[in-house]
Fold each of these.
Amino acid sequence: MVKYFCCAGLLKNTWDQVCVAFWQRYPNPYSNHVLTEDIIFREVTPTNCLISRRLLTKTSRAPRWMERYLPKHMASSAYIIEDSIVDPQKRTMTTLTWNISHARLMSVEERCHYRINPENGSWTEIKREAWVSSNVYGLSRAIQEFGLARFKTGVTKTMKGFEYVLAKMQGETPSRTLAETATERARETALAAKEKAKDLASHAQKKQYV
Amino acid sequence: MAHSKESHSAHVVVADRVGTAGRSSRFRSSVVSEPKRCFFPEMNSVGEACTELKREYDTCFNRWFAEKFLKGDRSGDPCTESFRKYQRCVQAAIKEKEIPIDGVDFMGPNKDKPES
């Protein structure tokens, strides 16, 4: 079973600026969970597209109800790969991001497509899709809910991080209140998701004893 | 969620159970040729010894990407040497840490995914 999610985002910056920011978006105030960043492959194709593979390590703290089911030795850092294609002729960028660790516990794949906003040539539209799946017997639904909720929180942080870096690149001082509002909203989403996932997990547990 | 306790005072050093070093961001001191980029914090490499090589390469790449690649200028890539040095270091670190990067085609995982 796979949970699918799709959303659209908008950045009020040109596609060029967004692409430049894409390579410089870490660190930012919303990315404290991203520990390391490395380009591990890069090439310009014969059709003049830039293809790259980026390796990220992120903190991977599971909620307490999930930690009980994890093997004791499981690392608390997660490895993530992000592949991207930048096409300067078509003015599009496509990215694919997925975790290469903890994948049997939970797998999250995200595909993004960046293009010039058709209504405003100075803006950039981001179409984002995600697939969340888990194979843990008896808990996959709860884990998928948790994964999807965390993904949505992550999208908020990603967009805020982008806006922050874009503002800095243009010499502006990003507003502090922007950061604070984002934190609040992220916390609220996380809390709601935590409750829902906890609920699902306790239902799953009850079923085991029937 | 437990992990959303992170605060937004930046540069929290995290030491995890496995014992690998935590992240410490550091502000890069100003470089004369790039006055606008003073005090831009930067990321570490997964290979602790590779961080300087990574930052050197990133600086070269970011300039080439914005000033040449996106503007359709196909004249040579000035970053091949710094890339080579960086890759030699980081690929060794990846092997040493046994990070499972092999065996997946570029853009591979999404090949069979249904469209929205």
Amino acid sequence: MYNLLLKEFKLGVNPFFYVLPLLTGALMLIPGWLYFLVILYFCFLTVPNMFAGYKSQNDLMFTGMLPVTKRDVVKAKVTFIVILELLHIVFAIIYGLISVRLYPNMTYYFFSPTIGFWGLCLVMLAIFNLIFFAMYYKTAYKYGAASTVSITAATLFAGVAEWLGIQSPLVHDLFKGSGADSMTTQLSILLVCTAIFAIFTFLAYHIGYKRFLKVEI
Amino acid sequence: MLVLDIKNVNKQYEHFSLKNVSFQLEQGYIMGFIGINGAGKTTTIKSILNLISLDGGEIHALGKDITQHELELKQEIGYAFGDVNFYNRNKIKTLTKVIKTFYHNWDDETYRRYLKKFNLNENKKIAELSTGMKVKYSLALALSHGAKLLILDEPTSGLDPAARDNLLSIFQELVQDGEISILFSTHITSDLEKCADYITYIHDGEIVNSAEKEAFVDAFRLLNGSKEQLELVKDHLISYKTNSFGFTGLIYTKDFDRSQGIISAVPNLEEIMIYYSRKEEAYV
């Protein structure tokens, strides 16, 4: 499994995508922006490009010839994506901390970069992972439909969350009202969202593996 | 000892199927796996490497069932695909660094030796290698992890005659000690006349014959005769071509009656393949 992960790091993806979190993270410096987009860029750019690379480099055949189990193949790929996702979130958080200090008196119409907001970003990625991997591993090379559906679902989640943040008094209070100032509330939201991310991603791996078993290379 | 034992392998696709494919390869020999394009060579090879699931049959490599001992066997099987490229924008060096981590028996010294022997420059990208060099790189990898069985899919296709000859000499050298065995598929039959010990011929998903090379060829006769003589043997011929002088046709040696006075010769592999693949056309 570690050698497969090493393979992903060294061959699977262009080093540009390790730099990308630094660039997209900087978008957090736009005052009062729709910050879900910062994380969504990972889904828009990195994922389709990476999987196009796998397809053109015959990664499926290459990996199929190696002495590895199909379970480890899926596990390594999901783990690799999760590492990249966390990289995007960590950089966005760092830029977010700078952003709130740069503009201390900003009025945020959309979610501000609070701890709870990063939790919502994790849920968005959880939805993305579940749909993407479940669809991708039907063939293990066709990424178009899987990307389209998973990106649409993640974007819809972001849209609905923002809408509720404006329209629903409860959500507004949790993220923008008194809840935003309560560390306990924010950390609880993050904890629940992290659990959702973990469960959904594990499910993505599990469904992906079951489907990959039936794939003929 | 049998390094490869394929028994009644069946695989059904929408427009093609492998039907009861069976053949065996003895340790220390080269087997040529021939057939026209689309006859089922690559599908059979994929099933040996457990890349596709079988509808029926069994495959044992190095004495072990491939479906049950896939990982162990992949440590001991080397492969080269003539026409498939992996990560070809990467340098040999980078690719090797990744690949070697997967093999328990990887030996750097052997790897260096083969790089030198095959004149492979580690700093070259895969895309910069000629087709022959790519096959040599695959061989270097396989031999460095101590592969005992080499499965080569069309390794000589697209190579110039000198490069082909060079590669065939390497194959012969490899099996000399009797430890390594090679199964290689090709439609370039002259390669096999040079180096194969056994021939397995697949046609339309079915094995026509699998035998030691001389015996394989000896099972067929190529007949040359007049139009009148054609009428005598027509029903026994596998297929035939007519011309202004008469006919040329392929027949199983067992069906050939020498007393009819028709000129016969031992065909070469190419002739067997050509006439056999005309079989269906003849009845259309």
Amino acid sequence: MEYPISIRSFGEHAVLIEWPNEVDDAILEDIIQFRSFLKQNYLDPQEWEMVPAYNSLTLIDRERTIDYQMFKAQLKIWYRERVGVKSRLRYLWKLPVCYDLDFAIDLEEVAERLGQSVARIIELHTSNVFTVYGIGFLPGFMYLGGLPKELEVPRRLEPRQKVAKGAVGLAGKQTGIYPQESPGGWNIIGNCSVPIFDVKREEPCFVNVGDRIQFYAISRAEYDLHKIQGEVGIYQFEKIKLDA
Amino acid sequence: MLKVLKSGFYTTLQDEGRFGYRDKGVPVSGVMDVGVVRNANILLENDHDAAVLEITMTGPTLQFERDTYIALAGAEFATTLNNEPISNNKVHKVKRGDILSYGKLINGFRAYLAIKNGFKSKEVLGSRSQYYPITKRGSLKDHEELKYDTYIDFEPKISELKVKSLLDEKVLKVSKGPEFKLLDDEQLENLFIKEFTVAKEYNRMGYQFNEKIKGHDWSMLTSATLPGTVQLTPSGKLIVLMKDGQTTGGYPRILQLSDKAISILAQKKLGDKVTFKLA
């Protein structure tokens, strides 16, 4: 499938490529595929950074000024050339979340606002598979798409000054994990026991844009165990290979 | 070691930045005023990515425990080496026990201390630039010690640079951002005629201004942002992202600052005025 892409100049060092303005797994897949193709064939990762998000791919040159007209023409050719190229492997990551009310400070309120039981909220949150549409805002913060309508709840009127590291939140059409302590306005319904971003790991953030995420509920005791395993770096993340 | 006797308001170690992790949400970081640091490193015949101290508003007091050579650059402070005034853009020899102290800020906002061969802190994700929580701390603290190489016989090819200072520049050259075309005539006129005054929300992450332009109700999907990206919020506020700015955002990116404009803005503080000009 070839989409109508548009290419725009974005300052001296970057070019933005945009796909149709939709949240769509097939579009995201095409973006990821094109990125893999560019990385493998034309754009040296030592020189170029490529940031995919939803319907866009931004190519950033580390130092050089881009000759925009020439690069644009070249990118159009490469986009047509890329057809049939396989992208890298994608994974479904299973992430443990403790929904204990000690962490889930807004869970009861969310359940009430949505007219559901707490158990039902947890069931909905753990039975759906989410797509990682982008990583940004904070190191390791994933923009997850695919939230069921029943879990859509507006963000809090007053953002909190401090949301705990690992806090799992709901806001509008989104759910996500705060990878570090930060201010935030999402409704907190649990805490992920394992670090999404850790500079001590060879790959500090194992999740890539295009991967899938599924949460599963754990007890307080398991949470405490994971915490220790995570800190010493022996926690084994559960992942399932997906067919490209 | 360099002993940090007093750390000052906000002193950080910076190099050219952290490269290769933007797709994981890690800001690029690095020195805010790239141009002046480049000159300081050239004077010392350092690699261009040698780590320097970025000194903000109220400077530190530092003691050298080994001989070496330094160069100062950027904002003008009343700086002294053992109580003797010393100037920017010049190679200075320092001896064991010497004390460098930063007095009153005279012009600009961010000064730099470059040292022969650069500061030797541990690299995290390929960079020495401090950015919390990628690095353990976001800035230096009192009584900290920083590693550097001893140097006793450096003969600089150039001992002083005459450079045109950009500290008094207030015109920021910009190019059109990806969502520029959404702006209407009224917004465009305001954007390029108004002077914008630096508001109290300004730091290494971004700069905001007191003046607003007309707001909007455009919605867009989150997409990449860069240092120098000017975002327009629904209420009409402008946010210029800087070196520690987030890597993605959901506000329209109406303008993009040139590299030089980022350097100019990096030297602005509360109440300073700037204008935007399309290149």
Amino acid sequence: MLRRKVLRDMRQNKGSYTACLLLIAMGLTVFIAFSIANDNFTVAKQTLYAQGRFAEGFAEVSAMPESDLHRLRRIGGVAQISGRLVEDVRVLPAETGSTSVAGSVSGETVSSAGGTGGTIYLRLVSKDLEDLQRLNDSTAVWGDPMGSRERHLWINAGFAEEHGLEIDDTISVVAGGRAHDMQIRGAMLNPEFVYIMREDSHLFPDPYRFGVATVPLDTMWELFPDQRGIVNDIVFTLEPGTEYRRVEELLELELEGYGLKRIYPRDDHNSHLLLEEESEVLTSFATFFPVLMLGVAAFVLYIVLKRLVQQQRGQIGILKSCGYTRAEITRHYLSYSVILAVMGGIIGSVLGMLAANTVSRLLFEYFALPEVYAGFSLRYFFFGTALCVGVLGVAGYQGVKHVLRLSPAEAMLPPAPPPASKTIFDSAPWFTRMLTTQGLMGVRNISRAPGRSGFLLLGIAMSFMLVAANYSMMAVNMPMFLFHQLTELETYDVRISLRSPQPRRAVLREVEALPFVTRAEVLARVPVTLSHRLREEDIELLGLPEDNRLYNILDAEGNRITPSAEGLIISERLATNLKVRRGDTITLQSPYLRGTRGSDTGAEADDKIQVPIVAVIPQYIGMNAYLEVEALERMLGQPAFTSAVLIRGEGEGEEVAAMLSEHYRDSDVVTAVDSRQRMIGNLEEMWELFSVFLNLFALIGAVFSFAIIHIAAFVTLSERSRELASMRVLGMTPKEVFSVIAFEQWFLSFFGILLGLLPARYLVAGFAASYTTDMYTMPAHLPAEAIVVGFSATLVSIWIAQRFALRRVRSLSLVEVLRERE
Amino acid sequence: MQTGQTRRALVEAYGLKKRYRMGEVDVYALNGVDLTLYDGELVVVLGASGSGKTTMVNLIGGMDRPSEGRLRFADRRLHGAGEEELTRYRRSEVGFVFQFFNLMPNLTAWENVQLAAEVAPDPLDVDQLLEQVGLAERREHFPSQLSGGEQQRVAIARALAKNPRLLLCDEPTGALDLGTGRHVLKLLRDLRDRYGKTVVIITHNENISLMADRVVYLKDGLVEWVKHNEEPLPPEQVGW
Ligand SMILES: Nc1ncnc2c1ncn2[C@@H]1O[C@H](COP(=O)(O)OP(=O)(O)O)[C@@H](O)[C@H]1O
Ligand SMILES: [Mg+2]
């Protein structure tokens, strides 16, 4: 019988219970969807890694004869080692009629984030067809075997899809200064290229403009005749139980002679790193969101049940007088929680499992991962539902326990009126004297119902906090993070990247002579290891001319800093990691430094140089150090060189880029011609796509905080309907009656917003920290503008909630409320 | 009705006291009540508002515990009984009727009665009870769809559903008009006649006491007098 009562009670109060149910179901949906997606993601990653024998260490050298590789195999701790030739090439737009990539470039509208246009690049990675144990091997999506010495390649699946490439299609690439037609033999996924970006500083993959292809090793040598017999990229795995650092030291010694540029463990591999991070994001999403939802659901239920048992005091008395035991009555009231939890559990699980597939598919699409599903498991359903039952059960019990403790005779009596004593506000007569009677009532109510007032206060604080923090991220920090580099720091039209360092003056002279170029600057990029005491970082040192105009160095206030010849300007993140400050001296090592060994031009005997730090600047993308270019050359003992040319031209940046691209079409030296405008455009498109997601979360946050305020106002009303009705009987208008509640709410809002200010700061910092890695530093500003927005949004929520409340006061039936036995 | 010698004592109270703490001072709602209720009799408890009627009936019904004194129901000892024991007692032996009916608003008439029948060890038939209180066709109605008199009749059926030996009615007519009130009183007496229950009716209306076998008058927490009615009036003739 009581079961029927439960159902009918719930129907009567369906608003609150539906809200609870929605919160639980939503929380559980997110929990299950993201947990399962993360499982799938992890399994897919592991499958790909295992199938492809993903390396544990990576080294880049200038050139090493392939035949020397066997020496490295003997190094203690190295399990397997593979050498490859890796080169970036440009894809040529093909002539009409041919079955080449251009057919699809011009023929199809590609709806991907990037859109069409701009230069297309491929990273060719050699594949030793004879080595069956080769590391970082691909997993086929479709295709036929490649033939040795054939112009064959396997392309990464994302690129193939973007360009509509099929088996035996050909594409033209520029290699070794000539164009070659290559035949597509298959599409693949590769553990090394799950998150495919041409440069680490690109924030998003662009599968249209950049792809990866494997090519038979001997074909590769034919494409690059000057590299015949050479490999420039070495990957290895470790014997079980071996420490990476030890192997690295040994390998460093061995590879020194081959121009070692960089050696790093799997943990520093960008694609791997981003995968790990994504996994973390999924996990934190699967926890943070549901916990928030469940927490609020528990609180709402607590309030609702508390109110319910207060209202049903008499009914509880009856049940007791009928001889129902306390356990039976407790069970009755807890069944509200359990019903909600189980219903939420079932709805959430079903939706979660459905959503899991969608989320997984999105992940598999964004990351180049095989579609492997971890398999169906009820684990999360049981865990999630049990958690909900537990949490809501406790919340419900907290809500009902004090009424259940009453003796049956007491339960039959109306509750004693709340003790009306002086409140803290009354101890400040100057304050109460300022108030109207309604105001005074409101203020006293606040201190008499501390729980409810606290809830509203917290709700308002949270609402303000969420809106202000979200706004800061969306409108200020994220755009600053994304666009600062390409709009404030880099101001060229076109950047030309060179395959290897080239003589600076010759390059400049040549580029400046082009009719459409108005200004050209060099950018020297040198891999260095900076260390200070026991800390060490591998970074890229950028050499800039003193009169730089196309690549700026800006301090925190946005003022230009001239590249110094006296010492390094380093990024804040680097300074933090090395624990150094301006004025400190740090140690610099570089493979480029080795060219000076033996000479007595500044380099010390052990290839190390001490350099002072002259400035520390904010940098959001990457972690770099800067030095005046001539000083850089002097320091390294190198002749004048450059790795890239920055160009400002006449007219539109894209046009200049197109002309340069055409001019260097067959160049063996130019690996990339990038238009800054195009890069910004790409970024904007990605950002638009991304911000839809983020805005969705912001919206959920806003709805969520509105719900809290609404619930608080609703509870206030229903708890006090009798008091309010009495005021109406006295002849007060609904507006006047309502002003008691309104005053109370505005009063609390003021303090709620104050209360939310500090946490908002921390929330922004937390958001920023969650995006920040060694590669990316998310700024964490909470600008005044965000505070104003948060403030207004909160006030609007309150105002709307109050309109609803006012409507309820108007419709309050005086007769009913007053007749109602309390 | 029956003669005194053959009656069995059902409830026996000696020196029954109930103390409430009101702020700093102790207030005795009952200040040493001696009282015996016999099997099958209809007793009316009279007294001014605040004289301790409700308190006394609550103690007898096991809704509350006495502060002092002894209280027995048949061979149960109620003073010093624990919560669990009192619950078991209420479950099987006592039915309550209240001034404000106190039906579960979310249960129909039938369900309200069934609610009590469900937990009792030896319940009466719910449909039959509803028929006896004249509400057979109203069984599917919710309390809000019933008049005050009808609600009180459902409440009486509910109190009876457990088939208790003792029926305690705290101002059962207090919220009803004359005609309806008489109807309810008649029902109570008929049920007593049919089932042989002990019925206690609390009231501050002296007219009602005319229908009782015995009248107990409370004043300031003490039994002031007890009167035996040789000729109880039928409820139809009770004035208001
Ligand atoms: N729970 C309680 N707390 C304090 N005092 C009470 C309580 N219940 C009853 N009283 C007091 O005990 C006295 C008797 O009350 P009650 O038995 O309800 O009287 P009656 O039913 O005859 O009107 C009254 O003075 C009342 O104020
Ligand atoms: Mg009373």
